[in-house]
Structure formats: structure tokens, C-alpha cells
């Protein structure tokens, strides 16, 4: 049986190109529903998925079924959107929506279409993409934004990771940061930590147990009990020597290597500047190679300036929005202002460092006309080098509710349209997912130029 509750839909695509709906039963078994098309939920609009809207689901992605929710699909026989409370082919069997957690480098174009049941709990801290079945495989509503295989698990065989762990355990037995990264690589399967132990690409340098933001989707600390964090936050501040030992080990082995402060398993690294600043000096005393990067909320521009003096090459500033109301509603800053974040971006540009924005996006909000206009204005005044498109790890409906409570959002223009419009207006701006190796800057401020 189906619930006849409907919302607006696009009905102008050819039916032969619709992507078939996939759903799950109470045991978590996932299967397709013949005669029904999968749908996405960009904003308030339920929209059936077509082959043109989707990509073959990337390797390494995962499928998840969503509890306390019912899937919304397009009935190809009636042409109506329907909320499926039960399996139309097995009355009495409850159905649940299915979502794709896509691999790194893919931007979600639409969350899956569903409706919450009464008393539904918050979804865990993952990103949720619409998905369906076509031909011989799953298709995901996603846009490939970065082709680099930095976090392709096929390039990180577990036996090689284990060997690297064993070697470095003997080489630096008392380094607490090395021990922490072991847990990240082995227990949590963190691709960045794995890359450190096998000596490739970018290595993480978590250092800060503290943060001055209270992000709704913080992966390492959730104090309300409404949702659970995904991983344990580092519970100590490593010494400058420990940080430098890890960084030098990586940069000595990896051509064009990158080491990055600011990971999902820590707070904000600007609050650990007391060890990071001397660590950077120690690294640069030994080598000029590689890129020292910091992923940060950009809250303390004065501290950031000192780190540039020490030799920090690049920054990636996390923002969910360049509108103050939306930023504050998600980051909930303590002891800093949105204006400080803007100043950190401007500072990096003035100091000729590589500046990226870690753009935490959610289809239906990020691509609203108000957000697009604000982003274009920001890019006009802050000529950053790179947008790193990161899917928001948060319940789509709860995020949308929080942002709509903060300020208004009109009908979305579409994520693919947004990316294309940015590329047309800002042709020199790069789009990607990973922190790049960068050329050494010429610091005009510090040289008086």
C-alpha cells in the first residue's frame, strides 16, 4: 500500500531513462523496486533521478538504510510521487530509504527523497546522497569534483599499512602522535593516517584537543547526546618534537608531500599554536621540501600570522556559508567572530600563501540563490585559490531546518549549475577535494614588499 501524500515534481524526463528506486527492509536488505523511480530531495522539491542526473556509484562508496523514515519515489504507472510506507509487492513489509555515502572527490547533487516518521531520531554524522539502480549497477546523484586517487582504498593495501605501522613503531617508539595515528589507521580506517604509514601523498598532524567552535556536525565531540561523534578526539597535545618527527619522516619519503594540521580527530589547530609554531620552525630547519598545510576555522588571524612567519605554506578555512547568520548557526563560535574568519582568508591572500575554502555543502541550501549571490560576492573580494567541495556530514532535513531558521533560502539552482556558474565567472579558481602541494610563496608583508 502507498500513502498518497504528494509534493511538487519534475515530470518532463523520458521514463525510459529514469533510475529505478532502491529501498531496504527492516533487516537492512537492499533491493530495487520495479515500476518505481528513485528520487532526490534538493530543497523542498522531490525530483526523480535520471541517468543524466547520476553517475555509476564510485568505488569505495557505501549504501546505508535510513531508520525512522519512509522512501519517496515516483510511481511510473501513475506519474505521482508517493511515500512508500510498505512494500507494494509484499503488503505489511515496511520499507526504508537507502542513501549513498560517496567516496572522496564526489560532490552530492541531491540527498535522497524521504519523509520522517513521528519521533524520528537524528541521522548519524555521514553525508547522504540519492541513489538508484540502472542497468547493472547503482547510480549516485553525484558530481566528480576531483580525479586524484589520494584516498582510493585500493591503493592502501592493509598488509602494507601494517608493515608501515610495525616499522615506525620501532623507529619512533615513544612518539605519542605516531601511536595516535596508528589508532586512526587501524581502528577507524582513516585514509590520511594510512597514507602516512605507507608513505604517500598527505600525512595528518593532529595536535589540538581544544576547539573554539561547537559545530553541529563535529565529528570528534558531541556533548548533547542527540547524535554520536564518529571518532575519538585526540586527548593530548603532542610536543613540537613529536610533530616534527612525524612530518620529517613523511616529507623525507614523499616527493611533493603534504603534511596537514587540522584533522577530524581534533579541535582547531590554531588553539595548539604553542606547539605547532615551534614544530614548523623545526621542520623548516631540516627541510624546505613539501607543503605544510593547516585545516582551520580561521578564527585567530593574529595567531595565523605567526604561523605564516614560522613557515606555514597553505591554509584551508572551513565554512558552510559565507553568510554570517548561516555560519554562526552551524559553527556556533565561542570567542571569535565571523569577521575574524574573513580576515584570516584575506591575510593568507596578502601573505601570498595558498588559500582554500573547505566548503561544507548541502544541496538545497548551498545552491539557493541567496547563498550563490553571497558566495560570488565573497569570491570577488577574496580571490582564493581553491574551493574544496566537502559534503556536509549531517542529517539533511535537520540541517535545512537549522539554516532556514537562521535566514531565508529560495528555490535551489542545482549543484551542477552552481559549480558551472562559478567556473564561468571565476575561471582561475580551482575546484577539488584534496590539499595540494604548493609552490613556496614570496611573503610581501614579511619582506616589506
Largest sheet composition: 10 strands, antiparallel
Instruction: Provide a count of the helices.
Output: 12
Tell me what portion of residues adopts beta-strand conformation: 15-25%
Helix % is 25-40%
Per DSSP E runs of 2 or more residues, the count of β-strands stands at 23
- What structural class do the secondary elements suggest? alpha/beta
What is the terminal-to-terminal distance? 73 Å
Q: Can you give the mean pLDDT?
A: 92
3D shape: globular
Rg value: 23 Å
Note poorly predicted spans: 1-15
3D structure, described in words:
With 449 residues, the protein is of the alpha/beta class. The protein contains 12 helices and 23 strands. It has helices spanning 158-171, 176-186, 191-198, 240-253, 273-286, 301-310, 324-331, 338-350, 369-381, 396-406, 415-425, 444-447; strands spanning 20-24, 30-37, 39-40, 47-48, 55-56, 62-65, 69-75, 81-83, 86-87, 90-94, 96-101, 106-108, 114-116, 131-134, 137-140, 142-144, 202-204, 258-261, 291-296, 314-319, 354-361, 386-391, 430-432. The strands form 5 sheets. Strands 1, 2, 5, 6, 7, 8, 11, 13, 14 and 15 form a 10-stranded antiparallel beta sheet that branches. The longest helix is centred in the middle third of the chain and has 14 residues, at 158-171. It is globular, with a radius of gyration of 23 Å. The chain starts with 19 loop residues before the first strand and ends with a helix. 48% of the residues are buried. Mean pLDDT is 92; it is low at 1-15.
Amino acid at each position: 500500500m502507498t500513502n498518497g501524500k504528494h509534493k511538487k515534481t519534475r515530470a518532463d524526463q523520458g521514463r525510459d531513462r529514469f533510475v529505478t528506486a532502491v529501498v531496504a527492509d527492516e533487516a537492512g536488505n537492499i533491493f530495487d523496486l520495479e515500476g518505481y523511480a528513485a528520487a532526490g530531495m534538493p530543497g523542498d522539491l522531490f525530483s526523480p533521478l535520471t541517468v543524466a542526473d547520476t553517475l555509476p556509484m564510485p568505488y569505495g562508496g557505501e549504501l546505508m538504510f535510513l531508520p525512522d523514515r519512509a522512501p519517496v519515489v515516483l510511481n511510473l504507472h501513475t506519474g505521482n510521487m508517493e511515500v512508500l510506507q510498505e512494500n507494494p509487492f509484499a503488503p505489511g513489509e515496511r520499507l526504508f530509504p537507502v542513501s549513498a555515502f560517496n567516496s572522496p572527490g564526489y560532490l552530492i547533487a541531491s540527498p535522497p527523497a524521504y519523509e520522517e516518521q513521528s519521533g524520528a531520531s537524528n541521522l548519524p554524522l555521514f553525508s547522504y546522497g540519492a541513489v538508484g539502480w540502472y542497468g547493472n549497477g547503482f547510480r549516485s546523484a553525484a558530481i566528480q569534483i576531483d580525479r586524484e586517487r589520494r584516498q582510493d582504498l585500493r591503493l592502501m593495501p592493509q598488509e602494507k599499512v601494517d608493515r608501515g605501522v610495525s616499522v615506525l613503531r620501532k623507529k619512533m617508539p615513544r612518539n605519542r602522535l605516531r601511536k595516535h595515528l596508528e589508532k586512526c589507521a587501524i581502528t577507524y580506517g582513516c585514509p590520511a593516517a594510512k597514507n602516512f604509514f605507507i608513505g604517500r601523498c598527505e600525512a595528518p598532524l593532529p595536535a589540538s584537543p581544544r576547539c573554539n567552535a561547537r559545530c553541529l556536525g563535529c565529528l570528534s565531540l558531541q556533548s548533547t547526546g542527540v547524535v554520536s561523534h564518529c571518532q575519538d578526539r585526540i586527548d593530548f597535545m603532542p610536543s613540537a618534537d613529536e610533530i616534527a618527527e612525524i612530518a620529517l619522516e613523511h616529507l623525507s619519503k614523499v616527493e611533493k608531500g603534504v603534511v596537514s594540521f587540522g584533522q577530524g580527530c581534533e579541535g582547531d589547530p590554531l588553539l595548539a599554536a604553542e606547539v605547532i609554531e615551534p614544530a614548523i620552525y623545526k621542520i623548516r630547519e631540516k627541510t624546505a621540501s613539501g607543503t605544510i598545510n593547516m585545516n582551520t576555522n580561521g578564527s585567530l588571524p593574529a595567531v595565523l600570522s605567526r604561523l605564516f612567519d614560522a613557515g606555514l605554506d597553505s591554509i584551508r578555512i572551513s565554512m558552510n556559508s559565507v553568510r554570517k547568520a548561516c555560519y554562526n548557526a552551524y559553527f556556533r563560535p565561542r570567542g571569535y567572530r565571523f569577521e575574524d574568519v574573513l580576515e584570516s582568508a584575506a591575510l593568507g591572500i596578502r601573505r601570498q600563501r595558498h588559500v582554500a575554502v573547505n566548503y561544507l555543502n548541502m544541496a538545497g541550501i548551498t545552491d539557493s540563490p541567496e547563498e550563490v549571490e553571497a558566495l560570488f560576492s565573497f569570491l570577488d573580494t577574496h580571490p582564493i585559490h581553491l574551493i574544496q567541495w566537502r559534503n556536509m556530514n549531517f542529517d539533511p532535513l535537520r540541517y535545512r531546518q537549522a539554516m532556514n531558521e537562521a535566514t531565508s533560502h529560495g528555490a535551489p539552482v542545482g549543484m551542477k549549475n552552481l559549480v558551472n556558474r562559478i567556473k564561468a565567472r571565476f575561471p582561475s579558481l580551482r575546484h577539488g577535494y584534496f590539499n595540494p602541494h604548493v609552490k613556496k610563496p614570496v611573503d610581501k608583508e614579511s619582506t616589506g614588499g
